[in-house]
Every structure is written in structure tokens, then in C-alpha cells.
Amino acid sequence: MGRQRLGIFGGTFDPIHNGHLMIARAMQEQLGLDRILFIPDYIPPHKQGWHCSPSADRLAMTILAAAEDPRYTVSAMELERGGVSYTCDTLRQLHRRWHRFYDLYFIIGADSAEQLPTWHNIREAMHYATFAAAARPGFAPQKEKVSEDLARQGLRNLVWVDTPELDLSSTEIRGRIRKGEPVDTMVPKAVAEYIEQRDLYRQ
Could you give the CA distance from residue 155 to residue 116 in angstroms, rounded to a whole number? Predict the structure, then answer.
């Protein structure tokens, strides 16, 4: 068997929602990814001091969402490692373990692509994986400029993947739940049921 392509999708996933899954599908189709590994983070570097739901709940919801596709798997590696979840540390670990079998693609949003120069050890991280940025339709005109700005700083290992527009955010979903509004069209059914059972996001 030849080399395969592994997509790595990190995030707080508080909760994971249909927008995340739609990005995963677009990445899979356009980059020919064989598998996608979802990794809930412990403390997101750009959100330090921000309070998120317990790790066990975020992990459980991610596992439920990933069960929808046999090519999706979930890793608790950042939760087990603890501390600030730096992408470079995670990619170093994955590269060490998988580089003989997989080419790694690290999935990010378009907004994150613009922030890459501020990321911890970003040059080393780009040595381990190609960064795949989700470009929603409204972002298309900026792609070239962002790529040029990054290239000037020596950050070239980036590809753009066109993704559909789906205006969904975990913040909005948590807000709707607090107000007692339905979210069943925004998250997978199993995730909606889990949120209900665990009474998450009510306060």
C-alpha cells in the first residue's frame, strides 16, 4: 500500500458542529484525504484564560460526531498531554509516529491562516505538515494576498481548499442553548442528545 493522506483537525469542539464536519468533508474530497483525525485541544493557545467545557464532554461529543464516517477517528493526545495545546508539539508527535505511512495535512480556518505568523514555532510545524486552509466563498479575494504575506515570512507550506458557506459557530450554539432555543439542525443528532442528557451550556 502506498502513502496515504491524513488530515488533522484540531479545535476546542465546544461543541463540535455541522460546520466542522462540512469542512472535513470538503477537505477530504478536494485533497484526497484517506483519514481525518479530530483532536480536541486542552488549552487553546489563542484563547488562554477562556473557560471551556470539561475535556471529557468535549471529547465525548467529538467521538459521537466522528462516528458518522468510518474514515474519521479521534485522538485525546492533547487532553492527555495537558498544558497549552501548541500545534507544533502535536504535529511533531504525529510526524514521528506516522511519517513513514502518511503525508500530514493540518486543517485550519481562513481566519487562522492570517494569524499563522503569530503561532508558536510555526516554521517547525510547517516542516511536519501541509497547512490546509478552509476558504469560504466570501474569503476568496483575500487568498492570494494572505499567501503572499505568509510567503514573505517564509511560510509557504499552505494550500487553500474552497468550502461552502455555513455560518455556524460554537459560540452561537452555546448561546442558543442558554436561551432554550433548538440546535438540532446545527449539530449531529447524537451530539444534540448528549448536550441534552448532560445539561450542557444551560448556565
Answer: 8
